[in-house]
Amino acid sequence: MRIVVDLNRCQGYAQCVYLAHEVFRLNGQEALTYEPNPDDERRLQVERAAAACPVQAIALDRVDGTERGEAS
Amino acid sequence: MTLRATVAELVREFRASGRIVIVGASLAGLRAAETLREEGFTGSLTIIGDEPYEPYDRPPLSKQVLKGWVPADHTKLPRMRDVDADWRLGVAAVGLDRATKQVRLANGEQVPYDRLLIATGTRARQWPNPDEAALQGVHTIRSRDDAAQLQKELAEPPSRVVVIGAGFIGSEVASVCRELDLPVTVVERGSAPLVGALGGVIGEIAAQLQRDHGVDLRCGLGVSSLEGDSGGHVRRAHLSDGSAVDADVVVASLGSIRNVEWLEGSGLAAGFWGVGCDAGGRAFDINGVVTDSVFVAGDVARAPHVLYEYQFLAMEHWDNAVLGAQAAAHNMVNLEPHYRPHLLLPGFWSGQFGVNIKSVGVPPFGDEIVFTQGSVEERHFAAAYGRRGRIVAAVAFDHGKWLEYYGRLIERSGPFPPPPPGWDHPPDTKPVPAEFPDPRVPTAVPDVVLTGHAPSERTAAFRPRRH
């Protein structure tokens, strides 16, 4: 799956780190880093993290990845 | 048919069967394509990208990818909807003919359009000496491939890394090196890291941050040459003070160059500054007259900003790519009075040395700075930038929750120094000079000249550069 975090919006509440610590990490107190293309088996965890984000900064893919004709 | 009905019919017909070409297949290009479809555009859509990869996100490259946590190919951007496009990836656009409305590709093909979006972004400025730049171990970082190769070499590990230039990318690379416990020397021509973006006062704090984390930081110095071994691998950097630093990896982080060369001869207001456009993303031609069929978005766009005296600003920020692309795409399938302006308060972030540095507004627009919250010693603070008694920007170190407060003040053209937020007040709240470098440095500005005498003949032209 694919995600992207709007880090302008992110304020480091770290709810995502709590709910999906394999995908989201804090570097220090506030700087969020994450795995943009986590394994599909993490989807439920990531969806919960996105729903729990107080500033709704986590965007998930709404359609499946690559279209015909695109390289990857 | 009334005129209004005719115009409505034109818009309907264009949305149904027009041809749109997007040049640039990164964040701005992708979000523009999604917006076009969202707005009901069902005509043909072609997306041209010089890299062979589908759209990916660049900010992770200099952070979690370099660190070795996230593979470089795990940065593919999520899709908000299907765009049903003809993707032309791995082939660059090399020319634009506005008279025949065609984009020329590197393979000689011509792609016709009715409306065009330019989203070609920027590239990394290379180390200026081509022989030295070609040495193994010398890197820039902008693309997925750049990041993958540099990550591999950092993992080996090298005996020392030299970073040339302490802007955001250079500072982030240095931070990753220290996280990986690699010795790193940062050479910065200015007085401190981040000085161009945040000024000398914040630069001093960033300098101390780097030194506290074990960076060998050398400011006020340049790298005069890079020395390779007989196998063509870089081994040493010679500095402008006559000293030398042994290193196996050199990262040149010298800023970016806008990808406008392919627009030469197109008659657009395109140059080293980017592509001039209005706040709705409509490109200006070389005379400064707005065009109807060419639009611009992302890092390469330069548009007047209402909050900054209508000065033309290029905002090389992530949300500018997203929101600028959405506004431009909306305007591509609408006509007056349905145009939408792109009125973004600029903002960016940078994670380095365990600190989250965030900013809103345009700090270099200010000439004074005042610390408004927190503690500089603890690197947990907010500061505001001002000009002529009004707030124009703010910066926060691990204090991001408060940026919204400052953002609202900037949008309302609030006073400087700003009213205290009533929380976490530092002892000293006296504004001081923000210490931005003197902008009056010579640059390689191309000449634009005016020709013709009669008002109907007057036109602007690029004059070939004289050497």
TrEMBL record, chain A:
Gene Ontology molecular function: any one: metal ion binding
InterPro entries in UniProt: Fe-S_cluster_ET (IPR051269)
Top-level lineage group: Bacteria
Listed cofactors: [3Fe-4S] cluster
Keyword terms, alphabetized: 3Fe-4S, Electron transport, Iron, Iron-sulfur, Metal-binding, Transport
Pfam families noted in UniProt: Fer4_15
Name under which the protein is recorded: Ferredoxin
